[in-house]
Amino acid sequence: MDRQVMRVLQSRLFWAVNLPVDVKRKLVNLQSYLRTAQANVKWVEQHNLHLTVKFLGDVADSRISEIVRNVNEAAAGTGVFTLTLSGLGFFPGSRRPRIIWVGVQDELHKFRLLHKRVEECMAVLGWASDSQSFAPHLTLGRLRTPRDGQVLVSKADKLCGDLGIIGDITVSGIDLMKSELTRKGPVYQVLASVQLNT
Fold first, then answer.
1. Which terminal Cβ of the chain has fewer Cβ within 10 Å, N or C?
2. Residue 90's domain spans which residues?
3. Cis, peptide link before residue 20, omega less than 30° from 0
């Protein structure tokens, strides 16, 4: 019984930049092209596409208001900025790909500043800082088995020369997201939003 109560009182959380609908549609079209490689990939669903700012993991619901208040203070004055989605890549690399991603360009210095401020205020609240490993990207999908990797890499390479800019994002705030893991995949819900120009 105690374990069930603990589960109810905890949520899996992360801070994210959510995307406009038109950009999500373009990313889904890109996924559709890449699907023809017939690699064994778990593609991120359209409504779940986002840019991660900070993953928090399982958090007691009683701490949510404290987290939002601290990030609101830390992010205030960062200002609105623009990010451009362009290019494709793989983590940890194209030889043994596990994740396929879209690159992020334009005002990256402001995105990194925002990430740093979130990291610092979350560190005060007890979260480990991973600011050194922050690599801005948007995850399109995760390979379930590495053996199909080269087929997908080849498909991506053919596209890259003609890909161009996928879309521009005006970042005016970040959202605290709740992720509920289900058999059909994660379901995300916005719990709170923090504006950057206050």
1. N
2. 13-195
3. no
